Amino acid sequence: MSSGGSSGASGSSGGGEGGTVSGAEEFDFAAPATDQSFENALAKARDGARLTVDDATELLATGTGAAGIDPVRKEAVLEAADRRRREEVGDEVTFVANLNNNVTTACNTGCLFCNFKDSAHAFEADSDVEHAGFTKPPAESRAVVEDALDMGIYEVCSVSGLHPAFALNEEHHEILAAHDDPASEVNYKPPERYATDPGTYVEQLDAMSVGGVHLHSMTPEEAYHASRGTDWEYESVYRELAAAGLDSAPGTAAEILVDEVRDVICPGKIRTDDWVAAMEGAAAAGLDVTSTMMYGHVETVAHRAQHLKVIRDLQDRTGAITEFVPLSFIHQNTPLYRRGVVDSGPSHAEDELVVAVARLFLDNVDHVQASWVKSGDAHGLKLLNCGADDFMGTILSEEITSRAGGEYGEYRSFDDYVEMITAIGRTPVERSTDYRTRRRIDPDDGPHGPRLGPRADGTPLLANRSSDGGRGGGAVGTPPADADD
Ligand SMILES: C[S@@+](CC[C@H](N)C(=O)[O-])C[C@H]1O[C@@H](n2cnc3c(N)ncnc32)[C@H](O)[C@@H]1O
Ligand SMILES: Nc1c(NC[C@H](O)[C@H](O)[C@H](O)CO)[nH]c(=O)[nH]c1=O
Ligand SMILES: N[C@@H](Cc1ccc(O)cc1)C(=O)O
Ligand code: SF4
Fold first, then answer.
1. Are 183 and 81 found together in one domain?
2. Mode of pairing for the β-strands spanning 438-440 and 367-368
3. What pLDDT, in 10s, does the model give residues 322-339?
C-alpha cells in the first residue's frame, strides 16, 4: 500500500482545545494503491503524454508501494517538470506589482484550516467581543487602492470573509431581508446591525476599480455568497460584477476539490460541483480566472491527483485559467492543528512534488506559481526549479497567511525580485495579471520599479514611503485594522 497520507495528518481527532472535527474519525486518509507503476508514470511524464489520475498519484507519492518520499525518485520527477517548464515557457520568471486589499474578516463559514476570519457576531454594533479584525467601507477601500496606484501597482487582489451583511446589490438586500429568519436561512443580517457597513459587493468593486487598475476578486465562495437565497446563475452574477469593474476572479475556495475532504476541513463551504459551476460562470462572463489547491492537511496524494483532474477538465472546457497557484497549508494557528487533527503542514519535499506534478499534469495551464508568502525566499526559489515560472506579486499587505502563522512578511520589492531571480540564473519579467503584457527587466539597470501600471514610471514601489524599505515591515498599503468594528 501507500506512502499515501499527507505528512501532516496525525490521524487523530479531537482532544486538543476546541473540540472535535466531525468526520475526521472515520475518514480513511491513506492513499489507495493504483494500477500504475511509478516507472511507467514517470516515462509517460518524460514523453509528454497526458497523465491520468493514477499517474499523478504515483508521481506525487514517488510510488505508492512504499511509505515516505523516495529522494531519488523525487529528483527524477522534479527534473522532468523543470525540463517541461523550460520547453513550455522558457527561462523567464514573472511577477506582478499588486496590492492585497481584503475588505472584511467577518465570516461565519467556519473553515477549519482558516484563521483569517473572525466570528461575524463580534462585528455587531452591540457586541463587546474583542477581535483584531476589520471591515473597510467602500470609500476606505478606494483610498487604499488610490494610494497604491500612486506607488505604481496595477493589480488589486481582494478576497474577504463572507460578512452576513454583504449582498450583491440593493435588490439582493431586499430578497435576503424578506426571509422569515434571514440569519439562519440565508446567513443574512442587515448592515444596521454592524458597527461598520461593508456596502454591497457591487459598491466595493466599483470603489476598488479605479484609475485603470486590474481588479482580481470574487472567489467562487464569494460569488455563492453574492447570490445566496436567489436562483441567479453564476454567469449573470459575474456579469454584474464585471460591469462594476471586476477583471478576473481568484480560484481560491478550491482547497481540495474532493467532497469527502471538504466535509472534514470546510463543511460550511460550497461543494466541488458548485465551485466548478462558479468558475464556469466567471469564464462565461468573459473573465480570466486563476486556480488553486490548498494541500498538506488531511488529504492524501490521491486526493491531490483528483483535484488536479478537476482543474484540467475545467480548463479543457473554458480555457480561462491563467495560472495554477499551489497553496501550502500553514498550520500553526488553525483549528485543524489546535484540535489535533494535523500535526504539521506539508514538508518541503511535498511542496516540490506538488509544483512538479502540477506542471506535468496540467498540460493546458501555462503558468505555475511559487509563493514567497507561503514558502519564504529560499524554498520559493527552489520551487522555481521544480516546474514553477511565476513568483507571485509585491502584495504590500498580507493577512491570511500571517494570521495562520506564516512568517515570511508581506512585501517584496522589485529589487528583491530581480536579485533573487537572477541569482538562480533566470530572467526577471514584470507581467500583467493576465500575462499578456510582459516586460523583461535588465538586472544592471537598477534600482527597479514597476512600469506597467497606469501611474508607474519605474520608481521603486516604496520610495519615499518607508524608512526600512518596507520588507516585512508591517502592512504598507493598508491602514491598521478597524479596532472599532
Ligand atoms: C481566506 S479565504 C478568503 C476568501 C473567501 N472567504 C473564500 O474562502 O474563498 C482565501 C483562501 O485562503 C486560503 N487559506 C486560508 N487559510 C489558509 C492556511 N492556513 N494556509 C494556506 N492557505 C489558506 C484558502 O485556500 C482560502 O480559500
Ligand atoms: N499566492 C498568493 C497570492 N497570489 C496573488 C498573486 O500575487 C496575484 O494576485 C495572482 O498571481 C494573479 O495573477 N496572494 C496572496 O495574498 N497570497 C498568496 O499566497
Ligand atoms: N493567489 C490567488 C489568490 C490568493 C489570495 C490570498 C491567499 O492567501 C491565497 C491566494 C490568486 O491569484 O488567485
Ligand atoms: S476560508 Fe474563507 S470562507 Fe472559510 S472561514 Fe476563511 S474567510 Fe471564511
1. no
2. unpaired
3. 999 999 999 999 999 999
* Ligand 2 centroid from CA 9, angstroms: 26
At 360, which helix (H) or strand (E)?
helix 348-361
Query: How many domains does the chain fold into?
Result: 2
pLDDT at 426 over 80: yes
Residue 416 lies in a domain: yes
Instruction: Report the alpha-carbon angle 351-375-294, nearest 5.
Output: 55
Look up residue 265 and give its three cell numbers.
476541513
Cα–Cα distances in Å, from 3 out to 65, 135, 213, 264?
Answer: 7, 44, 46, 21
- Residues 203-239: tens digit of each pLDDT: 999 999 999 999 999 999 999 999 999 999 999 999 9
Are both 73 and 155 inside the same structural domain? no
Does some domain include residue 29? no
Same domain, 289 and 354: yes
Cα–Cα distance measured from residue 176 to residue 38, given in angstroms and rounded to the nearest whole number: 52
Give yes or no for residue 391 CB within 6 A of ligand 1.
Answer: no
| DSSP classification of residue 55 | H
Which grid coordinates belong to 105? Answer: 474578516
Q: Is the CB of 265 under 6 A from ligand 4?
A: no
| Domain containing residue 135: CATH number | 3.20.20.70
Write down the ipTM of this complex: 0.94
Q: Is 328 in the pocket of ligand 3 (CB under 6 A)?
A: no
Q: Are 142 and 82 within one domain?
A: no
- Cα(333) to ligand 4 centroid in Å equals 14
Q: What are phi and psi of 338, to 5 degrees?
A: -60, -30
Q: Tell me: do 302 and 430 sit in the same domain.
A: yes
Q: Does some domain include residue 434?
A: yes
Q: What is the pLDDT of residues 341-378, one digit of tens each?
A: 999 999 999 999 999 999 999 999 999 999 999 999 99
8 A C-beta contact, residue 218 and residue 162: no
Residue 438's H or E segment, with its range, is strand 438-440
Question: Mean of the pLDDT values across residues 407-413?
Answer: 96
* Domain boundaries, position 102: 90-438
Nearest Cα neighbor of 108 from 128, 122, 95, 127 is 122
Distance (Å) of CA 171 to CA 56, 177, 201, 237, 324: 46, 10, 12, 12, 35
Q: Are 259 and 399 within one domain? A: yes
DSSP state of 332: T
Pick the atom of ligand 3 nearest to 371's CA: 1
- All residues at 6 or more sequence positions from 242 whose CB lies less than 8 Å from its CB, including other chains: 285, 286, 287
Q: Is the pLDDT of residue 6 over 50?
A: no
- What integer pLDDT is reported at residue 23 of this predicted model? 56
